[in-house]
Design goal:
6-stranded mixed β-sheet; about 400 residues; Molybdopterin biosynthesis moeA protein, domain 3; Molybdenum Cofactor Biosythetic Enzyme, Chain A; Molybdopterin biosynthesis moea protein, domain 2; 4 domains; alpha/beta; single chain
């Protein structure tokens, strides 16, 4: 059981999450569905790219030694066509991407020549290799194409397609069960009785977790009883790799999540020395990971970025997701912290030669509006004072 008498640091929480963490199994998927998936094997080039010498311009292919003369046009070469060997003392009309004819060693763009009745005048001084893309310029056969652990972006997909890959091996998406507690919660569209509120966390996390690579296997509202929560956790642990809850991990009489978890599995860590998100709970039920986020919407938002993102990244074998990228910015706000680190929601803008960090005025953990325009979290250490113009470290919110 976790030591409930002290607060833990974010670093200790991340260490707990990474303990025994390994990528899930992998599968082959069609290239058109592989966007943002993480490559499970290093792939090597199947052929040279480009596969043949080709023209980088619309123009004329020739021997550089023939520049400074009027040359007759002996052939016309379009992209996708096979070129004949270049006759001596001639040039070939050629278009971008078309293969260079044997014997030609340079291309001059069409805007630089003078077309005459007797042929094309080529200005003197043309160099060998001008406007020619040589075979293998980008990559050669058997060279590493994309490394294992790479999260496939649009450029990587195009790069792989250019090598003829129609399927790629990727790690399986982590299955996440998303459980919400709180009898006061209702769905948008339902009528609210006195004391009830709409469940904003549900829609926020249902959008955010797939951005981190998760597949939502279960989304459920759980009644506020120990029996219902215990049954829900047991059911979720049989069909998910990760269980995420919001609410129910604090110290209130109706906060049953922690007790239900401890009856089924282990609580590894509870309560952090951060603001917002102090009541975070980490644990496991057999092989299923558990992350209990605080019910306040900003706490759930910040906790998802700080802890769910690296957990889901680790399950997908993606090193780049282990930590949010950090930049230094100039504060356009003032604040003072007490005994916990504060993760302030800020908007970064490039101004002059550095970033400026603007903070939403109300940083309370119940004010989700502070997150709407935020693109970073300014990390303000405990027992610190920040004045406008001071340097602050900011974590970029990039999925």
């Amino acid at each position: 059981m976790a030591d409930s008498g002290r607060l833990h640091t974010p670093q200790q929480a991340l260490a707990s999450l990474s303990n025994g963490l390994a990528p899930l199994s992998w599968e082959w998927v069609a290239l058109e569905t592989a966007g943002d998936r993480v490559l499970a094997q290093t792939l090597h080039a199947r052929h040279d790219t480009p596969p043949f010498d080709n023209s980088a311009m619309d123009g004329y292919a020739l021997r550089a030694e023939d520049s400074g003369r009027v040359l007759s046009v002996s052939q016309r070469i379009m992209a996708g066509q096979q070129a004949a060997p270049l006759e001596r003392g001639t040039c070939a009309r050629i278009f971008t991407g078309a293969p260079m004819p044997e014997g030609a060693d340079s291309v001059i763009m069409q805007e630089e020549v003078e077309v005459r009745d007797e042929g094309v005048f080529i200005p003197a001084g043309l160099k060998v290799g001008n406007s020619v893309r040589l075979q293998g310029r980008e990559i050669t056969t058997d060279e590493v194409l994309v490394n294992q652990g790479t999260r496939l972006n649009s450029a990587a997909l195009g790069f792989l397609a250019g090598q003829g890959f129609d399927r790629v091996p990727v790690y399986r998406k982590p299955r996440v069960a998303l459980l919400f507690t709180g009898d006061e919660l209702r769905l948008p569209g339902e009528a609210l009785a006195p004391g009830q509120i709409y469940n904003g966390n549900r829609f926020m996390l249902m959008d955010l977790l797939p951005r981190f690579g998760a597949e939502l296997s279960l989304v459920e509202q759980v009644p506020d009883t120990l029996e219902d929560m215990t049954q829900a956790l047991a059911r979720a642990s049989r069909q998910a790799d990760v269980i995420v809850t919001t609410g129910g991990v604090s110290v209130g009489d109706a906060d049953y999540v922690r007790r239900a978890l401890e009856s089924l599995g282990e609580l590894d860590l509870w309560r952090l020395s951060i603001r917002p998100g102090k009541p975070l709970a980490l644990g496991h039920i057999n092989q299923c990971r558990f992350v209990g986020l605080a019910g306040n919407p900003v706490s759930s938002f910040v906790g998802a970025w700080l802890f769910l993102r690296p957990l889901l990244g680790g399950l997908q074998g993606c090193d780049e997701m282990k930590a949010l990228p950090a930049v230094t910015a100039r504060a356009a706000f003032s604040t003072e912290t007490a005994g916990r680190d504060h993760y302030m929601r800020v908007t970064l803008q490039w101004e002059g030669d550095s970033y400026r960090a603007d903070a939403f005025e109300d940083q309370d953990s119940s004010v989700l509006r502070s997150c709407v325009a935020a693109n970073a979290l300014a990390v303000i250490k405990s027992h610190s004072r920040v004045a406008p113009g001071d340097s602050v470290s900011c974590l970029l919110l990039v999925s």
